[in-house]
Amino acid sequence: MKTELKLEKWTLGKWKREFWKYFSKYIRLRDKGVCITCGARSEAYQAGHCIPAGCCGLALYFNEKNVNGQCYRCNINFGGMGAVYRGKVDEKWGKGTYKELEKIWRQPTIQYTKQDYQRLIADYQLKISLLGDEVSDNTKTGTKVAESATGLNRNARPKNPSS
């Protein structure tokens, strides 16, 4: 009961950060520790954005083709290695993928609601478990987030403010 009351007070920023934990974990597990830009295996492994997180909007911030595993060196020390990354995205996801991401980048931004984040968290908890790894951050809060999301329409799409 107390956890549910705490969740009600969460801001959209807090929900975004909470979802990022699950989304980035999924990306890192999916890509198995191999850096998309240099190919190295790394313990300091991150989920890096091809189109930078600071300017891409939510549609690309949580886009599985825009976010791939990167070593700390490429993602932080070398600023993401954008030119190399763009080519690697096309290699990994198919020719023209980067151009598709650019088109998404130019579209009006989307906004997520608290319910969208709850649904997405539950979806990515499932994706993580299907990759054979339990969510290590399965705190009471994380469990409550997933439980509260199960009654939501899993096919619902985030609202576009321009429509």
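(ticket continues) Second input and output from the same batch:
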Amino acid sequence: MTYPALVWFRSPQPDRSWVVAAGTVLDAASPWLAAVDHPPDPRAGLCIRAGYVALRRIADFFGIAHERHPGPHDPISIARTEFDEVVDRMAEAGIPIRRDRERAWRDFAGWRVNYDTVLLRLAELTLAPTRRGRRTVPPSTTLRHGSPGGGRAVAGRFTPPRSRAEPRPVGGIVRRRRDRHPGRRGSPDNGRLREAGRSGIPGGP
């Protein structure tokens, strides 16, 4: 990853997330390939492959375990009833649907299995919002590579690295790094030091 800190960037809208957006795009392309009756179009397949490869690389960086070569019959988090409901709504909207619904389900599951696990684990890691608008709570995201990106693993969970600009407690008082150099321009201690120099009493009024 070129800039892993982007994973932690949040949308100003609490119900939006880059992980949810990625899942939306992939879950739009998968039913299109599996259930819609249309001429062959490679663009949707390329979209899915590019998406799950990118998600897997992010998961690898954070040490998230996932199956690198999932099988088409491996279980996924989407139920058959959910898939049928989506396909029914597509048919009601006038989208041509293939007659073999059983094959459509198998094809969809075969696409979804490529990104199902990594998508859910990244949603847990970033506290992405769920369908109910609440953010997920990471139960125990396993990290295999220590502390990626400068963070730390505690009890199987990942704590993002502290920002350099974040205030740090010093002697019971929260100060920023520039306060460590009282003589630097712009420091709130400059005036106090000048006054102390006039009176000859260190730290005096």
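Agent notes: The CA atoms of residues 17 and 131 lie 12 Å apart. The chain has six helices and four strands. Closing as not reproducible unless the customer responds.
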